[in-house]
Design brief:
Helix content: 55-70%
Structural class: mainly alpha
CATH class of the largest domain: Mainly Alpha
Order of helices and strands: HHEHHHHHHHEHEEHH
CATH superfamily of the largest domain: Rhomboid-like
Strand content: under 5%
CATH topology of the largest domain: Rhomboid-like fold
Distance between the termini: 27 Å
Length: about 260
């Protein structure tokens, strides 16, 4: 089923498209530094990035996929709720998703960052070697020359200073992740639409008809599975997707479960 292009959906499509065009036209690296969401402990993190990251995308495919979802799940919600309520829902889902994703990344990396902080306060070859034995990615990050210096007996003069500097570089590595995209907000729209219109038929992949509720359950289940796999080569922010869906579902559920008498948005 196709719906007319609503006001907020249309403007979000235009804004996201223009920002992506600007990313490709101007300094892409500078745009990421300023507006992509960085690790919460990164020296490059700024609070505004939780919002600005919603309007940036990493590729044409990323942009088109999210904008298709915005149209498919957003237009009927805006027709039912009106522009102001729909925009509030969209932004809260997106911001909530980014915060949840950022907190999950922080929790995942906090142990190694804590160990690196300890090493900078207690610099020694022994402590650094203990770190190497604990974390494979650190062992793979150091150069053969530095490894030789660590194994030297007697210790190389100035090795503690080199270890301190290397530890700072490793902390930068551990907090280098960035997050971009409207996917968290789109998953919030999907959850909201599936709750309110569970039996609506959509075309999955533009070809396969399926009820909204089954599409949401299957897609959401796949995201949970992929998030639990936590594969190093998987660059998709599955936790942001799950977070956006969770925020969207809870907002709609608690707004409608009392006959729409106590709205959250």
């Amino acid at each position: 089923m196709f719906f007319p292009l609503t006001t907020i959906v249309k403007n979000l499509l235009i804004i996201n498209g223009l920002i992506f065009l600007a990313q490709q036209t101007f300094d892409k690296e500078a745009a990421y530094d300023l507006f992509a969401q960085h690790h919460f402990l990164s020296k490059d993190f700024r609070p505004h990035q939780i919002i600005t990251a919603l309007f940036m995308h990493g590729s044409v495919e990323h942009l088109l996929g999210n904008m298709l979802g915005l149209y498919m799940f957003g237009t009927k919600l805006e027709l039912v709720w009106g522009p102001k309520r729909f925009l509030t829902f969209y932004l809260v889902c997106g911001i909530g998703a980014n915060i949840i994703s950022g907190m999950a990344t922080l929790a995942e990396t906090y142990p190694v960052i804590s160990d690196l902080n300890f090493l900078q306060e207690h610099v020694s070859v022994r402590n650094f070697n203990m770190l190497l034995s604990k974390y494979d990615w650190i062992r793979m990050s150091i150069t053969p020359e530095f490894k030789t210096m660590l194994e030297a007996n007697p210790p190389v003069p100035g090795i503690n200073k080199d270890i301190f500097l290397a530890t700072g570089e490793l902390k930068d590595l551990a907090t280098r992740s960035t997050l971009v995209g409207a996917s968290g907000a789109i998953f919030g729209l999907l959850a909201g639409a599936a709750y309110l219109f569970p039996d609506d038929i959509i075309l999955a992949g533009m070809f396969f008809p399926i009820k909204m509720k089954w599409f949401a359950l299957i897609y959401g289940g796949a995201e949970v599975y992929l998030a639990l796999q936590n594969r190093p080569d998987d660059q998709v922010a599955h936790v942001a997707h799950i977070g956006g869906a969770l925020v969207g579902f809870l907002m709609v559920y608690y707004s409608y479960r009392r006959g729409n008498r106590r709205k959250l948005f």
